[in-house]
Amino acid sequence: MITAIYPGTFDPITNGHTDIVRRATRLFDKVVVAVALNAGKEPACTLDRRVELAKTVLAEFDSVEVKSFSGLLVDLAKTEGAEVILRGLRAVSDFEHEFQLAGMNRRLAPEIETMFLTPAERYTFTSSSLVRNVAAHGGDVSSLVHPVVEAALKDKYSIETE
């Protein structure tokens, strides 16, 4: 059984993330979606809310487990028995940062491989920060996120703008 771990802040989880997860379920027996605390960023949603939204969005996938984490990703990967760290690449601009992360993770845990997947073309421009920005300004994000995420964003930003 091969387990992959797919980390991110998922603030919010987008259809691009879901596309990566969908394809990962065809490649791996189990996919752990690891929602990061990421103290260096100020997320729009709390960690618990991001986990809750990811669980709802990914509920259709029996082989997917969603959990939160803080600390080193490789420590969680070892705890979960993951052999693969899965990362998404949208554009060449993502590569340099992802390459550095992969190198560090390999140094920390050489037994764990990093693999990259690219999202479907329609999601290559989609990022959580873009979705948050559009939603915060009242724009339509319905084609970029699951309806439950869209509702959560509308709820969050309608309260802040009133």
TrEMBL record:
<keyword id="KW-0460">Magnesium</keyword>
<keyword id="KW-0067">ATP-binding</keyword>
<dbReference type="GO" id="GO:0005524">
    <property type="term" value="F:ATP binding"/>
</dbReference>
<feature type="binding site">
    <location>
        <position position="87"/>
    </location>
    <ligand>
        <name>substrate</name>
    </ligand>
</feature>
<comment type="similarity">
    <text>Belongs to the bacterial CoaD family.</text>
</comment>
<feature type="binding site">
    <location>
        <position position="17"/>
    </location>
    <ligand>
        <name>ATP</name>
    </ligand>
</feature>
<feature type="binding site">
    <location>
        <position position="98"/>
    </location>
    <ligand>
        <name>ATP</name>
    </ligand>
</feature>
<dbReference type="InterPro" id="IPR001980">
    <property type="entry name" value="PPAT"/>
</dbReference>
<feature type="binding site">
    <location>
        <begin position="9"/>
        <end position="10"/>
    </location>
    <ligand>
        <name>ATP</name>
    </ligand>
</feature>
<dbReference type="GO" id="GO:0015937">
    <property type="term" value="P:coenzyme A biosynthetic process"/>
</dbReference>
<comment type="function">
    <text>Reversibly transfers an adenylyl group from ATP to 4'-phosphopantetheine, yielding dephospho-CoA (dPCoA) and pyrophosphate.</text>
</comment>
<keyword id="KW-0808">Transferase</keyword>
<feature type="binding site">
    <location>
        <begin position="123"/>
        <end position="129"/>
    </location>
    <ligand>
        <name>ATP</name>
    </ligand>
</feature>
<dbReference type="InterPro" id="IPR014729">
    <property type="entry name" value="Rossmann-like_a/b/a_fold"/>
</dbReference>
<feature type="domain" description="Cytidyltransferase-like">
    <location>
        <begin position="5"/>
        <end position="133"/>
    </location>
</feature>
<dbReference type="InterPro" id="IPR004821">
    <property type="entry name" value="Cyt_trans-like"/>
</dbReference>
<dbReference type="GO" id="GO:0004595">
    <property type="term" value="F:pantetheine-phosphate adenylyltransferase activity"/>
</dbReference>
<comment type="subunit">
    <text>Homohexamer.</text>
</comment>
<keyword id="KW-0548">Nucleotidyltransferase</keyword>
<feature type="binding site">
    <location>
        <position position="41"/>
    </location>
    <ligand>
        <name>substrate</name>
    </ligand>
</feature>
<keyword id="KW-0547">Nucleotide-binding</keyword>
<feature type="binding site">
    <location>
        <begin position="88"/>
        <end position="90"/>
    </location>
    <ligand>
        <name>ATP</name>
    </ligand>
</feature>
<feature type="binding site">
    <location>
        <position position="9"/>
    </location>
    <ligand>
        <name>substrate</name>
    </ligand>
</feature>
<keyword id="KW-0963">Cytoplasm</keyword>
<feature type="site" description="Transition state stabilizer">
    <location>
        <position position="17"/>
    </location>
</feature>
<feature type="binding site">
    <location>
        <position position="73"/>
    </location>
    <ligand>
        <name>substrate</name>
    </ligand>
</feature>
<keyword id="KW-0173">Coenzyme A biosynthesis</keyword>
<dbReference type="GO" id="GO:0005737">
    <property type="term" value="C:cytoplasm"/>
</dbReference>
<protein>
    <recommendedName>
        <fullName>Phosphopantetheine adenylyltransferase</fullName>
        <ecNumber>2.7.7.3</ecNumber>
    </recommendedName>
</protein>
<comment type="pathway">
    <text>Cofactor biosynthesis; coenzyme A biosynthesis; CoA from (R)-pantothenate: step 4/5.</text>
</comment>
<dbReference type="Pfam" id="PF01467">
    <property type="entry name" value="CTP_transf_like"/>
</dbReference>
